[in-house]
C-alpha cells in the first residue's frame, strides 16, 4: 500500500446522470505494468482518464472519490493540471503527433516545462527520449521532417518519446496498438518491457494476449465495476470470479 504511485479510492465517474465507473479502488505501484481489460463500454478508458484528469475536458463528466499520486490529491484545487499531465503522461489509441518536426514534437513538453536552458540541453533531452522510445536510429537523420511523415508504428513511438521527454512518473496507454500492424505492435510491446521499472505503466487493451505478454497485474472491469485485480498469470489461468473466467475464455464480451 505504502509504495503506491497512484491510488484510487472509491472512485465513481458520471457522464450526466449515467454512472460509467462505480466505486473503484486500486493501487498501482511504481515498478509495474498494469493492464485494464473488459468488454467494450465497461469503463476502462473512463477510469484511465480519471488518473490524469483527462475527463476535465469532457463537459458533462464528474468524478467522485479520491485519486492520489504519491499521496497527493490529483483533484485538489491547488493541483496544477499541466504539471499533472507531465507527471502522468498519456499515449492514445491513434498516434497523434503534432504537425511539426520530429524534433519539435519531442521538444515541446520540455520547452513548456522549462527543462532545457540551452539548445544543447534540448538536443540531449530529445535524443535521450527518442533513444528510450526505440526510435532514434530510424529518425536521427531526419529530425526536421514532419512527425506525420512517419509510419503509424513510428508515430506511436514518437508519441511515447513525447511523453517520456518530460520525465513522467506514470504513462497511461489507451489501446496504443489498436491502429498498428503486428510488427509495429510487437515493437511497442518490446518497448513497454524496456520502460518497465522506470515508469509505472497502465495499458488498456482489448487484446488479451497482449495483456498477458506485457503486464504483471491485470484489472478486469465489467459494467463500470472492478471485478477482479490480480497477478496477470492468475487472472488468465486461475481467475477467482466467474465473470472473469467467462470473459477470458471468450464466453462473453
Ligand atoms: N463523453 C461521454 N459522454 C457520455 N457517455 C460517455 C462518454 N464517454 C464514454 N461514455 C460512456 O461511458 C461508458 C464507458 O465508456 P468507456 O469508453 O470508458 O469504456 P471502455 O471500456 O473504454 O470501452 P471500449 O473498450 O469500447 O473503448 C460507456 O457506456 C460509454 O458510452
Automatic annotation (TrEMBL):
Entry GO terms, CC: membrane
CDD domains in the cross-refs: ABC_PstB_phosphate_transporter
All copies of domain ABC transporter, residue ranges: 6-248
GO-annotated biological processes: phosphate ion transmembrane transport
Keyword flag Transport: yes
Annotated keywords: ATP-binding, Nucleotide-binding, Phosphate transport, Transport
Any one GO MF annotation of this record: phosphate transmembrane transporter activity
Residue runs in coiled coils: none
InterPro entries, per the entry: AAA+_ATPase (IPR003593), ABC_transporter-like_ATP-bd (IPR003439), ABC_transporter-like_CS (IPR017871), P-loop_NTPase (IPR027417), PstB-like (IPR005670)
PANTHER family: ABC TRANSPORTER I FAMILY MEMBER 17
Matches recorded under NCBIfam families: 3a0107s01c2
Protein name (Swiss-Prot/TrEMBL): Phosphate transport system ATP-binding protein
Amino acid at each position: 500500500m505504502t509504495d503506491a504511485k497512484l491510488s484510487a479510492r472509491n472512485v465513481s465517474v458520471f457522464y450526466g446522470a449515467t454512472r460509467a465507473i462505480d466505486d473503484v479502488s486500486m493501487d498501482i505501484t511504481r515498478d509495474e505494468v498494469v493492464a485494464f481489460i473488459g468488454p467494450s463500454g465497461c469503463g476502462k478508458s473512463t477510469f484511465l482518464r480519471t488518473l490524469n484528469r483527462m475527463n476535465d475536458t469532457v463537459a458533462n463528466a464528474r468524478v467522485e472519490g479520491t485519486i492520489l499520486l504519491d499521496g497527493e490529491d490529483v483533484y485538489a484545487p491547488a493541483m496544477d493540471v499541466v504539471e499533472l499531465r507531465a507527471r502522468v503522461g498519456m499515449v492514445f489509441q491513434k498516434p497523434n503527433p503534432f504537425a511539426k518536426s520530429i524534433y519539435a514534437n519531442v521538444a515541446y513538453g520540455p520547452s513548456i516545462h522549462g527543462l532545457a536552458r540551452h539548445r544543447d540541453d534540448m538536443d540531449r533531452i530529445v535524443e535521450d527520449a527518442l533513444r528510450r522510445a526505440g526510435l532514434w536510429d530510424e529518425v536521427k537523420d531526419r529530425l526536421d521532417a514532419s512527425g506525420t511523415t512517419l509510419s503509424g508504428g513510428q508515430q506511436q513511438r514518437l508519441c511515447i518519446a513525447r511523453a517520456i521527454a518530460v520525465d513522467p512518473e506514470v504513462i497511461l496507454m489507451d489501446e496504443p496498438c489498436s491502429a498498428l500492424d503486428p510488427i509495429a505492435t510487437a515493437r511497442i510491446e518490446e518497448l513497454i518491457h524496456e520502460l518497465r521499472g522506470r515508469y509505472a505503466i497502465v495499458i488498456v487493451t482489448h487484446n488479451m494476449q497482449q495483456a498477458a505478454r506485457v503486464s504483471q497485474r491485470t484489472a478486469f472491469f465489467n459494467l463500470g465495476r472492478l471485478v477482479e485485480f490480480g497477478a496477470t498469470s492468475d487472472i488468465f489461468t486461475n481467475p477467482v470470479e466467474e465473470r472473469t473466467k467467462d470473459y477470458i475464455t471468450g464466453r462473453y464480451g
